[in-house]
Amino acid sequence: MIVEQRDYHVFTGKLPELVRLYETEGIELQQRYLGGFIGAFTTDVGAVSTYTHMWGYDSYAERERRRAELQADATWQAFLAKIQPLIHTQQNRILIPTSFSPIR
Questions:
Q1: pTM score, whole prediction
Q2: Which end of the chain, C or N, has fewer beta carbons within 10 A?
């Protein structure tokens, strides 16, 4: 198993709008294609104005296939057009659970 962590640092004051768009449009569509939704978070201390979501996959190949299917969806492309102006920077990480992690 792998876990993908995606962090979006948004422009100051835009975090509530980004969270609302994901809640009302984005997450349902992502779950349809990506499966494995672990959670969505905002940051209270540290790099504030950050939205993070995490997804679990059986393998990197599964992640690539599922993300390609999502990217091909016209509804997803329209959603991206709404959120991209809100995002300042993005960071993605692939996390590999340790042998003693409860998520493996």
A1: 0.91
A2: C
